[in-house]
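#help-structures

NK: newbie question. if I give both the sequence and a SMILES, will the prediction place the ligand too? trying with pyridoxal-5'-phosphate
OV: yes, paste both and it writes out the complex. here, I ran yours:
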Amino acid sequence: MAHTIPTRLYAAEDAIPRFWYNLRADMTEKPDPILHPGTLRPASPEDLEGVFCKESVKQELDETTRLVEIPEGLRDFYRAYRPAPLIRAYFLEKALDTPAEIYYKHEGTNTSGSHKLNSAAAQAFYAKEEGLSGLTTETGAGQWGSALAMACAFFGLRLTVYMVKVSAAQKPYRKALMETYGAEVVPSPSDTTEAGKRILSQDPDTSGSLGCAISEAIEKAVRAEGCRYVLGSVLNHVLLHQSIIGQEVKAAFDHYGIRPDIIIGCAGGGSNLGGLIAPFMGERLRGVSKTRFIAVEPASCPSFTRGIYAYDFGDTARTTPLIKMYTLGSGFIPSPNHAGGLRYHGMNPTLSKLYRDGFLEARAETQTDVFDAAVRFAKIEGILPAPESSHAIKAAIDEALECKRTGEKKTILFGLTGTGYFDMTAYTAYNAGTMTDYIPTDEDLAKGFSSLPQTAR
Ligand SMILES: *Cc1c(COP(=O)(O)O)cnc(C)c1O
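OV: that's the protein plus ligand as structure tokens.
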């Protein structure tokens, strides 16, 4: 059976983009600036360079350069696993009996198993160029830590990873993978930092949170010589690196004359969604397309759909600069029964602004619905998806079924951010029927909101 559009779409033999795309350059209304938490003035490069690499800071603060060149040494590394497959979901379309065309970008083909390697490699590359010897970071579900461990091994940097305690317990093989690539992994909160000790003294049985692990990683980086902290999501420079996803899709779609009507991504801190939609959102902002963009988040950590748009800290110990974003409050800790990543309290400031201004839609899904979609997808398309990615799958299936109802032949694209091989504890719970849903009450959320800084609004 020959299709006019092949199952796997590439623009060309060597389809590694030469440029990242900086979406902020095409926004007439820019996101609010990052603030220094003490002075409440926009953070200067000097404010940020004690913690982050210089190039990351430069990219973070750059709102005007549309296209940022990807260094050649980094493109060489990208060639090892990119371009990521862009797949026409013929089997899924048939199974759903929908007139919609469905495509997905599969970012899970590298060993770390997710899109996070795109930014991990970029940040490790710059750290090495800047003469640093080591990096620290946090990891929640473990994908970011795994990606950075791979990147640090390749570019020759030491790495300490603070891993959210509940995830370290649920995913021992993630820890083993990071250690195999040479990283030191510390379950967080730990007694190796002041921030960790403080949180443990308040709540010795805490299951940990990303915000808390971030505090520990920053503290460790600031204290060690030649060491910086790197973050795998939320910030704008991470979104910039992830725009390679959208750049590849755009090139392939243009090559085949495909125009997406709906683009869907799961949203934790917003990096894959922001990267996937970037060039397409640029077209919408310039008024040349009407593509709809949908963020899908867990009902147990609903930053967009139930959060507040406010200045907030990025971490529990309130050490980071203040970021204007949709947030549940840095004190929010999602229920430990939540299996599927996407646990961060806030959301990337650029996506927050776009959501605020009506360019981006959002919806929240419960984890049992998400796993229903995951297993359905695995059986039909053959790929075992990460629980995070399955939020996008759920929404893509719903949109395709809506097309079936209305008879519209829409083109739907979603981000398959990773594979679920390390998530078998969660799949086991789903298969056994013991997986439960927890949707925070307004009272639960109020606790998180009470942690919002009152100084900046
Ligand atoms: C980290 C992760 C996400 C969520 O992070 P974003 O920054 O929102 O993209 C989604 N899917 C997978 C597989 C991940 O590892």
